[in-house]
C-alpha cells in the first residue's frame, strides 16, 4: 500500500510521512521545497521535487508508484500573508488541489485526506466550534481551504471520490529532533528565533475580546496531528464511513500570553513580550470540539502545553547546534 503525501518535505508533511512509515504504509512525496526541506524526508522514502500544479508529474507519480490514496498537505498556509498575496494563495491552494484531483481521477486513485484548516470558520462568537459551525473565513487562505473542501465534495458526487478533511489549528512541537517548524510566520519559531538572538518576543495584538486580550487558539502537537492523518487514511482504505470533515481540537485552547508564559517556564529565559499591532486576518478566538474525530479516528491530545513547548525548543536548539 502506497500513499502520496503532497508537501511531504514540510514540517507537518514530514511528520505525516514518518507516521505512515511507522504504521507500515509506504509513502511517496511530492514537494517543491518552497517551504519544505529535502533533509526532512528520510532516506527510504521516494521523493520527487516538483509542484502539484504540474499535472503530468502528479499523474506519472500516481501511476508509477501504484498509489492508492493521497494525503494532501501541500499549500500556501500563511493567513496574514494571504491577505497581501491572494492570487498566489488561490493558485497554490485552489488550482493546485484541482490539478491534483484531476490527476487522481485520470489515474483511478479514489481516496484523499485533505489537510484543511480552522481558518474556514473565521471569527465566530461560539465558545466551542463544531463541524457544522457556519463558515466565514476572514482571509484568502481560509477561503482557499474551504474551496478545497468543496472540490472534494463535488468530486465525491461526480466521481465517487472517498474523502475527508481535517480542520486543524495551531500546530506546534516536534516528534523528531531533525524535523522542526521553520516558518517565518508561526508563533513558536518566531519566539524561539527571538530568544536565540537575544531579542524580546512580541505578541501581535493584546486588544482582542478574550480574557487576557490575546488570541485564543487550540494548540496541538504535530505528532498527534500526523497520527490523525494516518488514521483517516486507514479508515478510507477499510471503507469505513467518515464525516466530510473533522475538527482536531482540544475543546479548551490557550492564549498567546499563556504560550509565552509556558515558553519562559520551559526555556528558563525570563522575558516580558512586547506588544505589536494585530496581524490582518487573525480571528480573536477559535477553540474546537474534537468529539467526532475522537469517535471515528481515535483522536486525542497526547501532549500538554509544556510538553509541546519542550519538544519544539529541543528540536530548535538541536538544529542551531548542528
What is the fold's blueprint, element by element?
Blueprint: E1 2-6, H1 11-22, E2 26-31, E3 46-49, H2 55-64, E4 69-72, H3 79-84, H4 86-107, E5 111-115, H5 140-159, E6 162-168, E7 170-172, H6 187-197, E8 202-204, E9 216-217, E10 219-221, H7 222-238, E11 245-248, E12 254-255, H8 256-267, E13 274-276, E14 285-286, H9 291-297, H10 305-321
Parallel strand pairs: 1-2, 1-4, 2-3, 4-5, 5-6, 6-11, 7-10, 8-13, 9-14
Antiparallel strand pairs: 9-12
InterPro entries: Epimerase_deHydtase, NAD(P)-bd_dom_sf, UDP_G4E
EC number: 5.1.3.2
Family: Belongs to the NAD(P)-dependent epimerase/dehydratase family.
CATH architectural label of the largest domain: 3-Layer(aba) Sandwich
DSSP E strands, number: 14
CATH overall fold name of the largest domain:
Rossmann fold
CATH class of the largest domain: Alpha Beta
Helix content: 40-55%
Distance between the termini: 35 Å
Q: How do the strands of the widest beta sheet line up side by side?
A: 3-2-1-4-5-6-11
Segments where pLDDT lies below 50 for 5+ residues? none
How many helices? 10
Largest sheet: 7 strands, parallel
Query: Structural class, from secondary structure content?
Result: alpha/beta
Helices and strands, in order, run as EHEEHEHHEHEEHEEEHEEHEEHH
Cα shape: globular
Overall pLDDT level: 95
Total domains, how many? 2
- Rg is 19 Å
Please name the fourth-level CATH homologous superfamily of the largest domain.
NAD(P)-binding Rossmann-like Domain
Strand proportion, as a percent range, falls in 15-25%
Amino acid at each position: 500500500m502506497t500513499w502520496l503525501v503532497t508537501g511531504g518535505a514540510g514540517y507537518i508533511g514530514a511528520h505525516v510521512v514518518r507516521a505512515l512509515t511507522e504504521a507500515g504504509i509506504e509513502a511517496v512525496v511530492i514537494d517543491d521545497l518552497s517551504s519544505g526541506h529535502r533533509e526532512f524526508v528520510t532516506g527510504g522514502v521516494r521523493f520527487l521535487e516538483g509542484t502539484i500544479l504540474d499535472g503530468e508529474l502528479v499523474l506519472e507519480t500516481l501511476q508509477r508508484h501504484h498509489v492508492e490514496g493521497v494525503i494532501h498537505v501541500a499549500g500556501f498556509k500563511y493567513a496574514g500573508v494571504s491577505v497581501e498575496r491572494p492570487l498566489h494563495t488561490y493558485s497554490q491552494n485552489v488550482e493546485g488541489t484541482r490539478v491534483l484531483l484531476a490527476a487522481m481521477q485520470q489515474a483511478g486513485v479514489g481516496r484523499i485526506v485533505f489537510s484543511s484548516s480552522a481558518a474556514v470558520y473565521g471569527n465566530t462568537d461560539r465558545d466551542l466550534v463544531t463541524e457544522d459551525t457556519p463558515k466565514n473565513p476572514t482571509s484568502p487562505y481560509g477561503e482557499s481551504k474551504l474551496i478545497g473542501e468543496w472540490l472534494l465534495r463535488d468530486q465525491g458526487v461526480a466521481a465517487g471520490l472517498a474523502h475527508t478533511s481535517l480542520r486543524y489549528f495551531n500546530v506546534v512541537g516536534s516528534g523528531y529532533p531533525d524535523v522542526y517548524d521553520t516558518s517565518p510566520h508561526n508563533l513558536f519559531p518566531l519566539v524561539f528565533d527571538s530568544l536565540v538572538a537575544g531579542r524580546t518576543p512580541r505578541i501581535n495584538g493584546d486588544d482582542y475580546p478574550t480574557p487576557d486580550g490575546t488570541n485564543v487558539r487550540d494548540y496541538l502537537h504535530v505528532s498527534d496531528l500526523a497520527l490523525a492523518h494516518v488514521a483517516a487514511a486507514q479508515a478510507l482504505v477499510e471503507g469505513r464511513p467518515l464525516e466530510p470533515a473533522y475538527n482536531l481540537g482540544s475543546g479548551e485552547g490557550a492564549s498567546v500570553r499563556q504560550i509565552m508564559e509556558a515558553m519562559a517556564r520551559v526555556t528558563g529565559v525570563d522575558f516580558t513580550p512586547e506588544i505589536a499591532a494585530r496581524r490582518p486576518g487573525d480571528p480573536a478566538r477559535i477553540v474546537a470540539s474534537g468529539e467526532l474525530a475522537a469517535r471515528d479516528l481515535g483522536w486525542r491530545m497526547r501532549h500538554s502545553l509544556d510538553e509541546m513547548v519542550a519538544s519544539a525548543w529541543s528540536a530548535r536548539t538541536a538544529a542551531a547546534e548542528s
